[in-house]
UniProtKB/TrEMBL annotation:
Natural source organism: Scyliorhinus torazame (Cloudy catshark)
Listed SMART domains: IG, IGc2, IGv
Residues annotated as signal peptide: 1-27
Ion transport is among the record's keywords: no
Database matches in InterPro entries: Ig-like_dom, Ig-like_dom_sf, Ig-like_fold, Ig_C1-set, Ig_sub, Ig_sub2, Ig_V-set, TCR_complex_component
Protein name: Ig-like domain-containing protein
One Pfam family cited in the UniProt record for this chain: V-set
Keyword list, A-Z: Cell membrane, Disulfide bond, Glycoprotein, Immunity, Membrane, Signal, Transmembrane, Transmembrane helix
Main location: membrane
Length: 300
């Protein structure tokens, strides 16, 4: 009787003191895009021998991923493994993609009719090839700035704990700050802002930013360099164009004036010839006078 009571007591222990969570391993893992991710759920003995896996992204609702139990074939990139004692249920994700990032939870019932017990969660971070960019304002805006704002943007990072470093080449900096966000695919984007004095740009100094993604990868941005030239008057094209038009008008005026002068001289010459002919004609028409001598007729 005592043994029966003791056995019943141990059978009721899970009901009286329910297990809070199933331990999962590993707690966090970074996997390169295209790699394989495995997460283990240590359930102990299960009457149903079935474990459900879920994924959560950015505090959203749980999304069902896969069922793991013995003798279930893989579904695409997702499959499962169960150890010989049926106490560890493993979720396997092959050819990991960016959107596989998130926190994975296992869930199972110890026996039929009992509530689900969830795992404590395992975080998957995907690491693809990150990119780094150095952003600057347009040149037209820089001409009127006393300080030039620069931003170093790192996208596709696997962690937000990366540190951005600036290589300023003796530039005078005013302030800088860091900011970071996580994208829908689980990758991180980081930004570091910097302000430099525009007066230092007169020497054409170069500026780059860099980030150490891991022990062997060091990303460096394209350099930013700007040399401030003396301001050029915007009206020079108008001045040159106006001068050319004035010269053209002067040439045309000179040609027209010469042509009019030639015509005028030609007209005067013709008039003089006509006047001279008229004078000669008038001269020919003058009355000629002769002296006549008269004698007296003797017969009268």
């Amino acid at each position: 009787m005592g043994l029966l009571t003791l056995g019943a007591f141990f059978h009721l222990i899970p009901v009286i003191f329910p297990q809070a969570v199933f331990p999962q391993t590993r707690a966090e893992e970074t996997v390169s895009v295209g790699g394989t991710f495995k997460v283990h759920c240590h359930t102990g003995w299960l009457a149903s021998a079935v474990v459900y896996w879920y994924k959560q992204q950015h505090r959203e609702h749980l999304q069902f991923v896969h069922i793991v139990r013995k003798h279930i074939p893989a579904e695409g990139r997702f499959s499962g493994e169960v150890n010989g004692d049926s106490t560890i249920y493993t979720l396997v994700i092959k050819e990991v993609q960016r959107n596989d990032s998130g926190v994975y939870y296992c869930a199972a019932r110890k026996s039929n009719g009992m509530s689900f017990i969830f795992g404590n969660g395992s975080k998957l971070l995907t690491a693809g090839p990150p990119a780094i960019f150095l952003l600057a304002p347009p040149l037209a805006d820089i001409l009127s700035m006393e300080t030039i704002p620069l931003m170093c943007l790192v996208s596709g990072a696997a962690s937000i704990k990366l540190r951005v470093r600036w290589n300023l080449a003796a530039w005078e900096t005013e302030e800088w700050s860091h900011s970071g966000t996580i994208a829908s695919d689980g990758a991180y984007s980081m930004g570091s802002q910097l302000r430099v004095s525009a007066d230092t740009c007169t020497n054409g100094a170069r500026c780059t930013c860099s980030v150490q993604t891991n022990a062997s990868e060091h990303l460096i941005s394209e350099p930013f360099s700007y040399r401030r030239e003396p301001p050029q008057p915007y009206c020079l094209p108008l001045i040159y164009g106006g001068s050319l038009v004035m010269i053209l008008h002067l040439v045309i005026f000179t040609i027209l004036a010469g042509w009019r002068c030639r015509v005028w001289h030609s007209g005067n010459s013709s008039s003089n010839q006509t006047f001279s002919g008229w004078e000669n004609h008038e001269r020919d028409k003058e009355t000629l006078y002769a002296h006549l001598a008269f004698t007296a007729d003797p017969t009268l």
